[in-house]
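#struct-help
A.M.: can someone run this one for me? Single chain, 507 residues.
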Amino acid sequence: MPVLSRSEDPSPQSRCRFALAHSDITPPPGIYHRMWGAAKHERATGVHRPLRATVAIFAPLAGAGRQIILALDHCVMGASEHGKLVSVIAAISGVAAEETLVVFSHTHGAGLMGLERADLPGGELIPPYLDHLGETAGALVKEALLALVPAMIVYGTGKCALASHRDSWDGTQYVCGHNPGVAADDTLVVARVSNESRALLATVVNYACHPTTLAWENTLISPDYIGAMRELVERETGAPCLFLQGASAELGPREGFVGDPAVADRNGRELAYAALSTLTSLPKSGTKFAYAGPVVSGATLGAWKHVPLSSEELAAKARWSRERWHEPLPYRPGQPTIAEIEKSLASLHAEESTARAARDETRAAECRALAERKSRLLHRLSELPQGDHYPLQVALWQIGDAVWIGVQGESYSLLQTELRRRFPGKTLIVASVAADWGASYLPPRELYNTGIYQESIAVVAAGSLEQLIDSIASRLISLKTPPSKPSCATHECGTGSLSKSSPISPD
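D.P.: on it. Structure tokens below:
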């Protein structure tokens, strides 16, 4: 018996109020820039491409509630710096601090903007830069709040081969580099945002790949591949492009760890062309692709046409719900104490000095790099919340056919691939590296105690990533059945510690 074909092939869509604003946030040359342990420089010598701050606001078509995203072209931010940034935004814009989700492109070419580095060469420029960043972000939120308009978002899924698996065994040890023998998640999700007149407001590119094209030899401030990607997409579409970094803990560019900015630009164009291809395939908003019936010709043809969505279908695209919570992930047992790290750091500094005196520059460079690792670990441990569990921040909001997920820390791509496997009919946009970096890496359970870099510095216990996936999945399941009262089109649904303790200011 022939299989009856489906009569519709709809594209996932959302209806909401939306606004986007962006600004240049490039630090001044000469600012502290050393991101890599192997780097020999301290200060940035110039600018490859400008860095950007982008504010995107999503709100239901009717009623209260909104989700504010602040996307920064930076790698990570410490807990104290992140907390101050969100507080400044709230004070300037008048929004509740809990409404803003800060996400990072994770470029490793922007430098480390931590106040603990203020005493290092170029570090004196960090405090005023962070002050300016907060003021800029607050002004962007105010600007976007005034620009909210009804919008339709159409989503598409494509592929891009830029990302490579980077857990690699070189015969003697695990290294962090291109591993062609293991498949990498190549999923690319794009979104086209238009107003009611179908004028383009923005595009969104969601892809998982560490921005580590440029490494220790690079001395320029850079957004890495994201800069060229954004430039090309914006040139072709005429609208601003928002980049959201996916779950990319074990994913990096096939060609990376170089000092040549041209390679970063080439990587960016590869992603841009893949995004543009997917964007080009999207239909008009407010329509679906439907079977129109047979046409007798040389063969009996099956005609398909784009037809308008019904009023009921349009209403479903506007269904809104949001939830924010802290997922309690158990700390990894046996972590070193601050005193132990301080002792080890002092030993490395002493060994570096001895090596330099003996003109053993190779060993001196290794000690300097290892000392940088210990310094970062020391700072991270000093900022970890007290208790037995790390309260991982998660934000989830559904708009029609799509669910947007913001997750703290650096999760392995299993986070997005497993959720997409469990929910094949749902469009998922996963934004990783949200909030401060205190959560560090979240590797799969089986990688613990292997010596792989990401698991070696993980602060949460084995099984934490799987717990996070199950927690998000349970909430996605609840979204399948709309609540009987009140309607999510006019009410912000949600439970969890943040939602309960932090009421949302009305629009």
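A.M.: thanks! The first strand starts at residue 8 and ends at 9.
D.P.: also worth noting: DSSP finds eleven helices and 23 strands in the chain.
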